Structures are given as C-alpha cells and as structure tokens.
Amino acid sequence: ESTSPVGTTEKMANLIFNKRPELKDKIFIAYCPERVLPGNVLHELVHNDRIIGGIDEASTEKARDFYMGFVLGALHSTNSRTAEMCKLTENSSRDVQIAFANELSMICDKAGIDVWELIALANKHPRVKILNPGCGVGGHCIAVDPYFLTAAFPEEAHIIGEARRINNYKTLWCVEKIRNTIQGYQLDKGRSPIVALLGLSFKPNIDDLRESPALKIASIMTKDTKIEFLVSEPNIISHSRFTITETNEACKRADIIVFLVGHSAFRDLSIGDEKIQLDFCGIRR
Q: Is 135 a catalytic residue?
C-alpha cells in the first residue's frame, strides 16, 4: 500500500521468483495504494474506493477478494504499474493545485488584493475550484510523493517539479513576511515585539507534524534569540524543541500573532485591534 516508484511491485515479484521459482503461481502480489486521511483513517479505510493492481490477473483477483472483506467502496482493477502511477498522480495533482493557490496568494499580496475574497469570487464560476493557500505543503504524502516522478522522469515532469518548488518557496516567503513585520514593529514602537506562532501540524485539527511547513517556519524563526516567540499547538501537549504555550495565553501576551495552521480552535479567538495579525491560512476570515 505504501507509495512506491513505478515498477516497484514488478521488481519485487521478479526478485522473489528468481530466487524461488517454485513459488510462481503460488503467491500473489498486488499494489493497492493507501487512500486514507489522517484524523479519519478508519472511516476512509472502509468507505473509500480502492485501486487493485496485481502483477497478473490472478493476483488482482486475489487482492480484490481480500479487500472485499472490509472495503465498502468500489474496487477498481488494473495492473500494478498503473496502480503505482495512480497513487503518485493523485498526490502530485493535489500538490500542483495547492501550488497554484500559493502562487496566487503571493501575487495578490504584491498587488494589494485580498486573496481569500478573490478565490471565493473566482470559485463562483461553475468550472473553477481553486484551493485555499497556506504556508506550504506538509505531510508524509503530498510533500514527498511528487519527487518519485521528478526523479524518474526529470525531462517530462516540469509542472510537477515547479509545483514542488513553489510550495517549498511559500514557506520561506512566510518567514520573510514575519521578519519584515517584526522589523516594521521595531521601527514603529522602538522595541522588539513578542510574537505568537500558532500551529505546528501539517494540516488543521490533527497532531501530525511530519514535513510540516508550520514546524519549519517555527524552527527558522526561533533561531532569532533576540525575539521572544510563543509557540502554540493545541493538538499536542509537549515538543522536544519548543515550549508549548496555551493559545489564549500566547495571544494575550503577543504583539504579533501569526496563524500558521487553520485549526478550528483559532477561529473564534478574542484578539484586540491593537495586535498585528498575520493569517497565512485564512482561519480569521
């Protein structure tokens, strides 16, 4: 089920059968890409459609029989190579769509346009569905899987590779935006601000920090020991690097509040007008 380069299942089958030819037609090998969302794994494991790609027709049928025991979604048969590419395609497609939103957010910032209003208006078109921007892309799938394609097909995977660069750059763009805001505060107030960084996980309402752009931003920013940073992540109790500050306490003490992840807990916070807010995830809209 784990993401693999195209052709991996066939290679594994060849390794096994070259060593143990008597196992041919006795064991059956298929690739069936995982399709679950962190925070809702068990429901999606049962209800999502699945792709079943065997190294041969018999393997596909054996795998179908296995998944029919617990999957209520439809089972779609194909070969292992296509199933492997399907997994990479799904996550690369998401990465490209997010890259468009992130690039649009940077254009709008420079043009003085509210990107959230713009996207809401553009999505009124019946054939347009722009995703919401953020401070990058994280997680163990979308931020990683496109590299399988760019590595294997460097001359062909141009859009996929550029999407990865855009999404990685958006994280650094957010860092510069925070730094510029801090410098502006220092010039205006004659003192350094206290800065609250809200959110560390790679997506809203979960505790998963893998490949998180918010975590990267917090790691970069807190290297500046001349500024007091308050890090808040309501979905975890502690962290090996950061002292986790309760969200309301962080907002109360901070002069600048930076929303890195759109946790539901951040939506209804009471924050005075005297506070500077940087909302990279649209949670305060």
A: no
